[in-house]
Design brief:
By secondary structure, the protein is α+β, with helices and mostly antiparallel strands. Helix content is 16%, strand content 37%. The longest helix has 23 residues, at 196-218.
Length: 219
């Protein structure tokens, strides 16, 4: 019997697991979590042995992932940007409001009927053949809520699991064998840029220090 995986069922399964994977890390506003992934082999339909050789059902058209996201500080509506890469080539990306402690993302082929929290990828070739040097990049795009005096929210984030499959509707798909394996997850921190006034004060202080040094040498 073929298994049809729907987002709700996937989230229910995820809720039985710990809230955060070991690789989870704090992602501050503007910072990015990069989760590498790869395939052990080309993904295959679980009923490939009985499908016609040219059946379109043999070809995956959905890449689906579950994100563990637990608020770690700050205040505001949580939003994230999720991007799919093959090496340095971006295959797709989109931004959306999300829920905690679990949310999902999906990348699909053009023409796929699957639409749940999904965006179209420019190419699925390296996913179909299992050769992708994949990474998912999740950027915390949450903003400060004006008038409250709190910083924008940060989150303890990890990619919990990923699957590929063939869509059977707008929010269901048949998961394939040889699915993606999530690897190392790292966070790129935001580089602080000095405010113009702060930079000016630093420059004045530096000039003052140089002046003192010169007077000491003259003495």
């Amino acid at each position: 019997m073929l298994q049809i995986r729907a987002p709700l069922a996937a989230l229910l399964l995820a809720c039985a697991a710990p809230l955060a994977a070991p690789e989870a890390a704090i992602v501050a506003p503007g910072a990015t979590l990069t989760a590498a992934f790869s395939f052990p082999a080309a993904p295959t339909h679980p009923a490939a042995s009985i499908l016609p050789p040219n059946s379109p059902d043999r070809v995956p058209d959905v890449l689906y992932g579950i994100v563990n996201a637990v608020q770690a500080g700050g205040f505001g509506a949580p939003t994230m940007r999720v991007e799919l890469f093959d090496g340095t080539t971006q295959l797709g990306g989109y931004e959306f409001a999300f829920s905690t402690p679990f949310t999902v993302f999906s990348f699909v082929t053009a023409g796929s009927p699957y639409t749940f929290q999904a965006t179209t990828a420019s190419s699925f070739t390296s996913i179909v053949n299992g050769a992708i040097n994949g990474s998912i990049r999740i950027t915390n795009t949450s903003q400060v809520v004006p008038g409250f005096g709190f910083p924008a929210p940060s989150f303890d984030i990890s990619v919990g699991s990923m699957q590929v499959g063939r869509a059977v509707g707008t929010n269901g798909f048949v998961p394939f064998d040889n699915g993606p394996i999530v690897g190392v997850q790292t966070v790129t921190s935001v580089v602080a840029v000095p405010e113009p006034m702060a930079a000016g004060l630093f420059g004045v202080a530096l000039l003052g220090l140089l002046g003192v040094t010169r007077r000491q040498r003259a003495a």
